[in-house]
Amino acid sequence: MRTLIILLTALLTACSTTPTLDREFGNSLRLARTQQTLHPDAGRTPRPVNGLDAAAAAAAYQNYQQSFITKDDQGNGFTIGVGSKR
User: Fold this and answer.
1) 78 found inside a domain
2) I want to staple 56 with a disulfide (CB 3.0 to 4.6 A). Which of 6, 22, 27, 52 is the partner?
């Protein structure tokens, strides 16, 4: 019975009206998105895109991915025998 009351309460809250928002709601998001757009009419013009060609972009992305691979420590030549546990 308790579960049924909780379920009915949850279902009835879904039927409530949406809150009234002011006229300015969402303006900051729209402004931030607009300010981050470099060329808004880019899809309407047949100009090629400024930037990297496909091969250079693929190589840059591969180098970026490889930068996260950790390499084995070679050690420092000046600390041979210092601080070792042998």
Assistant:
1) no
2) 52
Residue type (1 letter), 66: Q
**Residue range(s) defining the domain that contains residue 24:** 1-40
Query: Whole-prediction pTM value?
Result: 0.35
**Closest to 12 measured CA to CA, from 20, 4, 21, 23:** 4
CB under 8 Å to 42, separation ≥6 — which residues? 49
What's the rounded Cα separation, in Å, for the pair 26 and 36? Answer: 16
Residues 27-60 pLDDT 10s: 999 999 999 888 888 888 888 777 888 899 999 9
Residue 52 · residue 60 · CB < 8 Å: yes
- Flag whether 5 is in a domain: yes
Classify residue 9: in a domain, yes or no.
Answer: yes
